[in-house]
Design brief:
It is a single chain. By secondary structure, the chain is of the alpha+beta class. The chain has one domain (about 5-125): PAS domain (Beta-Lactamase), CATH 3.30.450.20. The protein has helices spanning about 10-15, 40-45, 55-60, 65-85; strands spanning about 20-25, 35, 90-95, 105-110, 120-125. Strand 4 (about 105-110) and strand 5 (about 120-125) form a beta hairpin.
Length: about 130
């Protein structure tokens, strides 16, 4: 994995959409969330103390266990089908519980291959109208 200082935070902070950066770790599927940009903070509100890893993210973003399981199953299906078709991104639209603004609907785009920052992958959120 690359040094964390390789994350272009100034660039990510200027983006008008929420971005989270996760570290790729072969030893676990519960990848650490190492960075969220200022748009993430404004739109979603969870900080790194709230969501230090994917497991915490799932619990905060999808607090209803039934919806969480549905999203998890769909996500696995999208990841699997994207891998078969050799895509570099997966996308799905879901409802996300934010820290301060209640539930918002987002298209969530995830890098499947660490293309932008070696050793990390980026998750981007685009808010959509309900």
């Amino acid at each position: 994995m690359s040094d964390l200082t390789s994350i272009p935070t100034k660039f990510l902070d200027m983006l008008p959409i929420p971005i989270a950066v996760l570290a790729l770790e072969d030893s676990t599927l519960n990848h650490p969330i190492v960075y969220v940009n200022s748009s993430f903070d404004s739109a979603i509100g969870w900080n790194l103390e709230d969501i230090p890893d994917k497991e915490h993210w799932w619990k905060k973003a999808y607090p209803d266990p039934n919806y969480q399981k549905t999203v998890e199953n769909l996500w696995e299906l999208y990841i699997e089908s994207a891998g078969v078709s050799d895509k570099s991104f997966a996308m799905m639209t879901v409802n996300v519980m934010t820290k301060y603004h209640g539930v918002k609907r987002f298209k969530i785009h995830t890098e499947l291959k660490s293309a932008l920052i070696d050793g990390y992958y980026i998750v981007a959120f685009k808010e959509v109208d309900v």
